[in-house]
Amino acid sequence: MNNTKITVKNLDLMIGKHHILKDINTSIPEKKITVIMGPSGCGKTTLLKSFNRLTDLYPEVRLNGQIMIDGKDVLHTREDITKIRKKMGLLAQRPYPLPMNIYNNIAYGLRISGRKRKVWLSKRVEFYLKQVSLWEEVKDRLKEPAARLSIGQQQRLCLARGLAVEPEIILADEPTSSLDPISSQAIEEKFIELKQRYSIVLVTHILRQAKRIADHVIFMYLGRIVEQGPAEEIFNNPKKEITMSYLKGKFY
Question: 4-98+167-247, which class in CATH?
């Protein structure tokens, strides 16, 4: 695949005696929306978390294989793990704003990277809030606690916070599952806009959502990749019976 951002080779993940990911081989294109889909419990989120090595947080996890990001194997590297994770903004199922005001949710990550000039910080906070179409809604409330925002606003704030550390990849784990339809649409539209600058990997169980925004699809079942390819090809001409059954809504 041309312009590949992430390449996974022979990836296996074990938790204790449980084999969760089984011989995963895939390539994720640069500056596209790649959707990972499949029934609950098939390994979608585990695969997503392996990209930025969040799986390291669980001592019982064992990983074998390669995950190449821009040609560098992030599983076998001496590079600081925080530098690897800085390349990837993460958007979780539920928004988790920092326990501080709206302004500082964005400024915090900028400050810890050594950027402390107030004028510069204020301009960057405005810039990233505009990136997620939140500025007009909060520009007069920047000193209010982020927890006072609606759930949909909080999710967009978390997206802005992730963008502020200047990642190359956005990892999103069912980011609209707790949102109302209007907020979900806002996030989807923002992803379509952001793929011009970022490679986006999205886990979703919402088939309609995948059809609306996916450029590339990875379909998983029981820890394996069953089928993958351009979204139009997978949705219109799936080759595997299990994929056909899923697309017809026969199981989730």
Answer: alpha beta
What does the domain layout of the chain look like in residue ranges? 4-98+167-247
Taking the complete model, does pTM exceed 0.90, yes or no? yes
Amino acid at 180: D
**Count of CB atoms within 10 A of residue 39's CB?**
16
| Beta strands at 4-15 and 61-69: parallel, antiparallel or unpaired | antiparallel
Encode pLDDT of 96-126 as tens digits.
999 999 999 999 988 876 667 899 999 999 9
The answer to whether the CB of 134 falls within 8 A of the CB of 150 is no
| Residues paired with 91 in a beta bridge | 172
DSSP symbols for the chain: --SEEEEEEEEEEEETTEEEEEEEEEEEETTSEEEEE-STTSSHHHHHHHHTTGGGG-TTEEEEEEEEETTEESSS--S-HHHHHHTEEEE-SS----SSBHHHHHHHHHHHTT---HHHHHHHHHHHHHHTT-HHHHTT-TTSBGGGS-HHHHHHHHHHHHHHT--SEEEEESTTTTS-HHHHHHHHHHHHHHTTTSEEEEE-S-HHHHHHH-SEEEEEETTEEEEEEEHHHHHHS--SHHHHHHHTTS--
| C-alpha distances in Å from residue 77, one per residue of 12, 85, 159 | 18, 13, 28
